Amino acid sequence: MPYVDWAIKGPKIAACSCDYGCPCEFNGRPTEGLCEGLECMRIDEGWFGELRLDGLKVAAAYRWPGPVHEGGGIVQGFIDEAASDAQVEALATILGGGEQEPTTVFNIYGATIDQELPPVFAAIGFGCDIEARTGWFGIDGKLNLSLEPIRNPVTGAPHRARIVLPEGFEFREAEVASGTFTAEGDIEMQRRSRYGALWQAAYGPYGIIAP
Length: 211
Hints:
Elements: E1 6-16, E2 35-42, E3 45-48, E4 51-52, E5 57-64, E6 73-80, H1 85-95, H2 105-110, E7 113-122, E8 125-129, E9 134-139, E10 143-148, E11 150-151, E12 158-159, E13 162-164, E14 173-183, E15 189-204, E16 207-208
Parallel strand pairs: 6-7
Antiparallel strand pairs: 1-2, 1-3, 1-15, 2-5, 3-4, 5-6, 8-9, 9-10, 10-14, 11-12, 13-14, 14-15, 15-16
């Protein structure tokens, strides 16, 4: 079926409660039974029909009581306070799974969510160097995430690893990092040295947009 022409492209960073590598990426069960974490994307290039979305940022805090595919999740979205009403409506449509195939990342994860908390509009700080495996984002009083390279336990040297998923729905290739993050408010968490990932994201109505 025809959809509104839209796309969001830019760096995306995330971290969760799993060990490095995250068993979920290999059809395993979460390291600690539950799954919780944070993510953020900076939209360097984006549009929804004729409306531009360049420069906006979106983030989320989430938790599932068990493996993601078993459902029962709770999520709260965070949208750049600089977004206009029209841009907010467009982002809500995209992130909510509208105007796209049911096999996109937003619809796949959305199908596992039982409770969606009201979105928060705030200033979102963001920095990312995918090649260096470093990144951060912050929302004052709410969320903070920092990523750094995994370190060799003997020498302390940066350790490099990638996850390659040729048929992935969230990413096809991502750099793996060490994530430390905290969240306050409706979904609280505090984690140190857990699985983190960075990648160049590009999504549209039919899923990942190939480079």
